[in-house]
Structures are given as C-alpha cells and as structure tokens.
Amino acid sequence: MKSYTSKLNVKRLLFFTFFSLFQLTINAQDFIEGQVFRATDSTSISGASVYFDGTSIGVISNEKGAFKIPYTENNSLLVISYLGCEPLVINTNEPAYKKKSLYIYLDDKLEALDAVQLEVDPWSRIKKLKLFRTHFIGKYPTWKYCKIMNEDDVNLKYIPSSQVLVASAKNPIVVKNKKLGYEITYNLIDFEVSFKKSPGGILYASSTYYEGTSFFKPLKKRTSKKVIANREKSFLGSTLHFYRSIYQRKLDENHFKIFHKRFLVDTYKYFSIIDDDNMKNVTLHAEEIDILYKDEHHSSFKAKRNFYIDQYGNHFPPDAVTVGGVMSQIRLAETLPLDYKQQ
Predict the structure, then answer these.
(1) Is the pLDDT of residue 11 over 90?
(2) Under the phi-then-psi rule, with left for phi > 0, alpha for psi from -120 to 50, and beta for the rest, what region is 237?
(3) CB 62 within 8 Å of CB 75
C-alpha cells in the first residue's frame, strides 16, 4: 500500500471581513492585550478563546471582552474564536500589528447551505466516521485514549466520481487525548482523504490532507510521569523534532540521517540555512530527500520553495513542505503543541 502523504497544520486562512475589527496592542512586557467585540451590535464578547495556533498558550476574554496573553515572536498565528462567530486569524509578527491599536469585531457566522449533490453517497455514516477517526486522530487502537467529544458536529461526504472523502464541522472539534494529557480544540477548515484502486480492485487511501487551527489545553494541572514519558516518545522522530533540529543545526546529534537517491549524504549537503532575525530561512537543493531517524523510521521530504522555521519548530508557509512515510502518518493523537518542552 502506498504511504500517506500529508500536509498538516496547513494554510492558516485569514478570516478578515469588511466589518471585522479587533483592538490589539503589544506592550513592553511581551504581552498582547486586546478586546473582543461582536460586529452586529458592538457589544463585548465574554468567553472568547484567544490562542496561538498549534500551542498550549491561550486565554479567555473576560466580561468586558478584554484579554492579556503572553507573547513570544514566532510563526504561530493568533486565533480569536467564539461560538456563533467567524474565527479571526492574525499574524502578530507583521509590523502593522506591533505599532497600532486596531479595533476588530467578530462577525456572526453565516449558516452554510449544503451544496446540491448530484451523486448518491453510497457509504454509511458509520463507515465514514471510522475512516475520519483513522485519518484525523490516528489508527485504532488510538481511539481508546483519544476521543472526539462532539462527533455529531462532523459532516462527512464520500464523492464516488472523484473517490474522495470530505469532512466539515459546524463547531470546533473537541478531542480529549488522555495519553498525552491534552484537550484539543480544532477549528477544521478543510479535510480530504483521496482513494485509489489497486490492480485487484481494492480501494485504499492514497493521501490525506487537512488544515485548521488548534489549541492544546492540559487536562490536569500536574502532569504524571507516564504522560511526560508518552509526550517524549511522541516528540522523538516527529516533524516537530526534525524542524527544531534544523533550526538548532543538530540533525546529527539528534540521530537524523539524510539520504539522496538512496545514498547517505553529508547531513547539510542539500540544505541552505540562513539566519533571518530570529528565524531560519531554509532552502532544499534537491527535489526530494529521505530522512532516517535512529536507523529505524523512514520518511521522505520535499520543499517546493524556501520556508522559515522558528525556535519552536513551527515552519512557514505550511504548504511549502510535503512529508511522506512515518512522519506523514502521525495524526492528532500523537501531535504535540508547538510550545512543547522536553523535560
């Protein structure tokens, strides 16, 4: 079976509209302060979620709609969301957001009308939900310790003519991961699993693609030794580990070997890594390379253009990079927040 090719944490879409305003300031104490309002009547929004995408750094707005969140310059986008409103995504690294106080209001979410479907969906919801769990959370038995708490909010459709399973969600998907000790709130933007038929006529998943914003909330104030060990195991050899190793120039020390056309090569032979403020500007000078972690886990790596990596291992733009093999098969059940720290 062909290995999956995934693009995870891809295309953070910007939901700016003509009536969306948001008050934002970054102060000298490295905090972002702001206030959230509703566009329809200019009332403040209490209980809005404000977080950096893919991290565990987040707060809730108070009764006046105000919030204060720690800030460290990085590639993560700031997400402001509230049930019934369109989420807003802001790049706080842009100069405009550092020098100005902006008033931005959240628009009410419009009810999406289901597109007219000319094809009959031959798959049962049970079958589609099982596939969604596998490609979004991970293969069984991960479902035992990583559970979607609001599966009824997930809409699923199989399109026979294109052999694609698509998914959407009317509310953020809430996932409780007991193994890694997080409750994950995932704003699903796009989800697609493409299928192909083998010579024997068997349908199999050839690629998985999904994108969205996520917030990781620890399940408990104190993390057990077992959960700490589980997080460490998930981190080692992951894409997050790989990107951080590039940023720190520690691919060799962290047991990553690089191959090109099946031959072992000097680790940085096909990489150009240039300091760019607190980022690394990375260019891959090969169509594709292979990565071997600890002589066991094999992955492929492609970059269609240069990309940037921050100190946390977050890369941008997300769609510049495609991974295959073991790294691409890591799903939400084994995903850690970008601000994860080894202990």
Answers:
(1) no
(2) left
(3) no
CA distance 222 to 220: 5
Asked if 149 and 174 touch (Cβ cutoff 8 Å), the reply is: yes
Name the residue type at position 265. Answer: V
Residue 158: strand pairing partners? 165
What CA–CA distance (Å, rounded) separates 119 from 122? 9
pLDDT-above-90 percentage for the chain: 64
Q: Which of 81, 110, 78 is nearest to 174 (CA)?
A: 81
Q: Can you give the pTM of this predicted structure? A: 0.83
Locate the DSSP E strands across 93-169: 105-106, 146-148, 154-159, 164-169
Burial class (CB in 10 A: 0-12, 13-18, 19+), 85: buried
CA atoms within 13 A on the CB side of 197: 7
Give the β-pairing of 5-7 and 203-218: parallel
Task: Give the containing element (helix H, strand E) for 95.
Answer: helix 95-99
Q: Which of 256, 255, 240 is nearest to 309 (CA)?
A: 240
Burial class for 95, CB neighbours closer than 10 Å (0-12, 13-18, 19+)? exposed
Q: What is the DSSP code (8-state) at residue 198?
A: -
Phi and psi dihedrals of 262, rounded to 5? Answer: 75, 0
Tens digit of each residue's pLDDT (9 = 90 or more) over 176-218? 999 999 999 999 989 999 999 999 989 999 988 888 999 999 9
Which residues share a beta bridge with 217? 183
SS3 239: helix
State whether the Cα torsion 305-268-325-174 is positive or negative. Answer: negative
- Which one-letter amino acid corresponds to residue 133? R
Classify residue 110 by its DSSP letter.
P
